[in-house]
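tokens incoming
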């Protein structure tokens, strides 16, 4: 197992290198208008002592855009490895500062959107499989299909219209109320948490359906296996057959989905955060992309690739933990 992990880590680093090269190539191939626009804005700021051309030359040199594709990539990579991704053009702060200010909002929101769906979807999926073709099964299936079919922006619009506009229970956008500055520390926490309710509900409904359907399908397949019939024929209690023999093997395919959970926790939810005005990493990355913030966009794409590879590696390791039959030589 140790050799396998080391081999996979080295392979992941190699893949990450080429992913970052592709990211840099895409940014390098963009029209230079973004670079020129940023240089003009910096030159027109009050108190600025540099001309437009000086700013343009400095930006090109900072990100290696004036050296050609390959030398420029290694210039940017050398800075990125040391944690220096430059300054965000849109947010006018260091990229790492913008990231640290927004990532925890996304993390808090997506932890809720992970814990609740897992706690609800897996038990309901198992229950639906145990009672196949019953009213419970049909109800779970219908709910799962609704969650799978609804686009996130459509569901968010419905939630905002019903609970925000019609009932007036929640704010439709933003993270703070008007009297936020007058509240104490605990009041500010509750105020922000109240603004997170609708975005969290939106993400939970979308996540529950897919995981519920996946659990039900795999549980049905396991329950029809020969070893389950053998366990029942031996007189084992139905609870032990389901909870020990069947459920453990149902988790094997679900582990595959966990590779994407890590990226989901820290990668943000771009559409949901943008629609509800939650200043998480998804909201920040969206505004950075549409405003031509090349430094932050490069950082965000590289960060997402890193999370995806770490999640995939964890999935492979968990296979051996969940299923003793899986052994890696």
């Amino acid at each position: 197992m140790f050799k396998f992990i080391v081999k996979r880590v080295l392979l992941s680093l190699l893949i990450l290198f080429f992913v970052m090269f592709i990211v840099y190539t895409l940014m390098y191939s963009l029209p230079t208008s973004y670079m020129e626009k940023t240089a003009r804005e910096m030159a027109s700021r009050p108190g600025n002592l540099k001309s437009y051309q000086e700013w343009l030359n400095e930006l090109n040199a900072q990100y290696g855009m004036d050296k050609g594709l390959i030398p420029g990539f290694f210039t940017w990579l050398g800075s990125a490895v040391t944690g220096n991704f430059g300054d965000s053009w849109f947010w006018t702060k260091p990229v790492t500062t913008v990231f640290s200010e927004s990532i925890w909002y996304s993390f808090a929101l997506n932890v809720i959107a992970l814990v609740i769906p897992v706690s609800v979807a897996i038990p309901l999926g198992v229950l639906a499989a145990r009672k196949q073709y019953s009213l419970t099964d049909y109800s779970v299936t219908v709910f799962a299909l609704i969650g799978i079919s609804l686009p996130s922006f459509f569901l968010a619009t419905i939630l905002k219209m019903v609970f925000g506009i019609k009932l007036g229970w929640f704010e439709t956008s933003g993270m703070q109320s008007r009297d936020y500055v007058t509240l104490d520390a605990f009041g500010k926490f509750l105020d922000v948490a109240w603004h997170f309710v609708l975005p969290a509900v939106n993400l939970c409904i979308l996540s529950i359906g897919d995981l519920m359907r996946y659990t039900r399908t795999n549980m049905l397949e396991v329950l029809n296996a020969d070893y389950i019939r053998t366990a029942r024929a031996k007189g084992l209690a139905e609870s032990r057959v389901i909870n020990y023999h069947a459920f453990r093997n149902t988790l094997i395919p679900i582990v595959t989905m966990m590779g994407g959970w890590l990226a989901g926790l820290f990668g943000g939810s771009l559409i949901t955060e943008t629609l509800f005005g939650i200043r998480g990493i998804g909201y920040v990355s969206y505004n950075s992309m549409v405003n031509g913030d090349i430094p932050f966009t490069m950082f965000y794409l590289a960060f997402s690739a890193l999370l995806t590879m770490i999640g995939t590696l964890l999935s492979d390791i968990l296979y051996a933990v969940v299923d003793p039959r899986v052994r890696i030589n």
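note: Residues 95-130 form the longest helix (36 residues).
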